[in-house]
Structure formats: C-alpha cells, structure tokens
Write a structure and sequence with these properties.
With about 150 residues, this protein is mainly α. It has helices at about 5-15, 15-25, 45-55, 60-70, 80-110, 120-130, 140-150; strands spanning about 35, 40. The protein has two domains: about 1-70, Multidrug-efflux Transporter Regulator, Chain: A, Domain 2 (Orthogonal Bundle), CATH 1.10.1660; about 115-150, no CATH class. The chain has seven helices and two strands; from the N terminus they run ααββααααα.
C-alpha cells in the first residue's frame, strides 16, 4: 500500500495540491488519513481522481460528480448511475448545440451586413421586429444605397 503526500498525488494525477484540497472540500474525495498533520493517500485516490477527470471531460459539474459518487443508494451499480446522469447531460448538451447553431446563424447574417452605419443596423433590427408580423419596411441597406446614389 502506497503512502503518498498531497504533493505526490498531485504530481501523479497532473493536478495542483489545491485542486485535491478543493475536491476534498467539495465532497468528491474522502477525507484522507493524517500522519504528523500531513495528508496521506493511497492508490485509491488516483482511481477516484481519474473518475472525476473523466466526468469533467464529459461536461459534468462538480455538483453532478458529487451526485454520481454519493447521490444514489449505495448498491446502485455504476451503469445505472451513469445512465441517469448522462440522460440529463445529453439533453442539456443537445440544447446547447441548438443554441450554438442559432448563434452561428446570427453570426453568418452579421458577417453579410452591408449597413453603412451601426445606426442603420439598429433601424434594420427594429424594423425586423415589427409586432404585427408584417414584412418589415425597406431595409436600412437599401435606404443607405439610395442615399449614396442620390435617388432619395
């Protein structure tokens, strides 16, 4: 059985000692034994840290990892725990993907902007939000072009 200090565990796990202390405080790691006031860990802590890292790579929050570890009946098998948490996480991620796609569409429209001023952009946005749902008035772009060509 290994007896490692927090620094040794941190080095093996690729973390800072402060992260390990945080995980202890957050309830993700059990309170370690102490010898002469120093934390002492065994190899089980590396397995727990690997599990925490996997969950974080999958996008789970500290709270969700705590639920994975402690939020089920003690005899709940890991597959059932993962299934419960991943169903929620997948729904959340799918919503985030939809939001990201909507953001992409806005960015593509912004990239194609030909308004001569930001004020014209504001006019076009305001006109596009008409409460009646009717077609917005002529765009600020066409008004800007008309002004520049002198036909207004």
């Amino acid at each position: 059985m290994a007896d490692w200090t927090i620094g040794e565990v941190a080095g093996r796990a690729g973390l800072r000692p402060s992260a390990i202390r945080y995980y202890e405080t957050a309830g993700l790691l059990p309170t370690p034994l102490r010898r002469a006031g120093r934390r002492i860990y065994d190899e089980a802590v590396l397995r727990r840290l690997a599990l925490i890292a996997l969950a974080q790579r999958a996008g789970f929050t500290v709270r969700e990892v705590r639920t994975l570890l402690h939020g089920f009946a003690p005899r709940t098998a890991p597959p059932a725990r993962w299934r419960t948490l991943t169903e929620r996480k997948l729904a959340e991620l799918e919503a985030r993907v939809r939001e990201a796609r909507a953001m992409q569409a806005v960015i593509r429209r912004l990239r194609a902007c030909a308004c001569p001023t930001l004020e014209d952009c504001g006019r076009a946005l305001t006109a596009a939000r008409t409460p009646t749902g009717s077609a917005p008035p002529a765009s600020a772009r066409s008004r800007g072009r008309a002004r520049r060509s002198g036909s207004s």
